[in-house]
Design goal:
136 residues; alpha+beta; five-stranded antiparallel β-sheet; 5 strands
């Protein structure tokens, strides 16, 4: 599981790497964290020099269905359902912390977005720590 300090380190590293693009008024995107459930991306905004756009994208993970029994399917389905509930609660926490929520696609891609300073505070990342959901 990734912690808030690790997320902040990844963000600051991305901010440093993206700075030349931002100064050149170019758009650029970098993934700072990814797992089966979500990915976090940082993007430049040519109109802002002191902030970056952070997006958390969440969708139901792809689970294979080959060579499994009905019991395995039920167990897998419950695991995915519990994980989705945890991630929806995570989205609610992000919304409370000032992130904007959207449903992007009909197949359930949720996003939480917010502009963050290039030199953020660690508190900005406490709410970003995602739930730990293992698919079983």
């Amino acid at each position: 599981m990734i912690g808030c300090n690790d997320l902040m380190k990844e963000y600051v590293g991305a901010a440093h790497r993206l700075k030349p693009k931002q100064e050149a008024l170019q758009e650029a995107i970098e993934v700072i964290y990814q797992n089966d459930w979500l990915r976090m991306v940082v993007a430049t905004d040519p109109s802002l020099s002191d902030r970056l756009f952070l997006a958390v994208e969440i969708c139901i993970p792809n689970v294979g269905t080959t060579n499994r029994t009905r019991r395995d399917d039920t167990s897998q389905t419950l695991s995915v359902l519990r994980g989705m509930i945890e991630h929806l609660e995570y989205l609610c926490r992000l919304s409370t912390a000032g992130f904007n929520l959207q449903i992007i696609r009909e197949d359930c891609l949720w996003t939480a977005t917010r502009f963050l300073p290039i030199s953020p505070e660690v508190d900005d990342f406490r709410v970003l720590v995602p739930p730990e959901c293992v698919l079983g």
